[in-house]
Design brief:
The protein is mostly helical. It has a single domain, classed as Orthogonal Bundle (434 Repressor (Amino-terminal Domain)), CATH 1.10.260. The protein contains six helices and no strands. InterPro entries: Cro/C1-type_HTH (IPR001387), Lambda_DNA-bd_dom_sf (IPR010982).
Length: 109
Amino acid sequence: MKNCDHYLDLAKIKRDLPSDYALAKLLGVSPSGITNYRKGRSHFDDATAIKIAHLCEIEPAEILFAMQVERAKNDEARAVWSGLLEKFSKGFRWLALPANACGALVPQV
């Protein structure tokens, strides 16, 4: 399961940022806030999740679902959110099918 740490690293890579400090500045959060996300002491709020999605060039709903999985208080709730994330991901992959050189649609693997 992708967590805050994964998305923070992806944002740094996509934006070629040298440090968590630079990422914190770009997001408008404190460096200790980034540390708390990385250590699992806190999770992105919706506004931060959407900012990170834009930095990562991914669908914001993916991160919003992932944060709900992380916030879930019990295994049953976590399983429900994980299932919804998986359904969303499968549906989104089929909506974004790339065309091959002949113009035919081919599923992503």
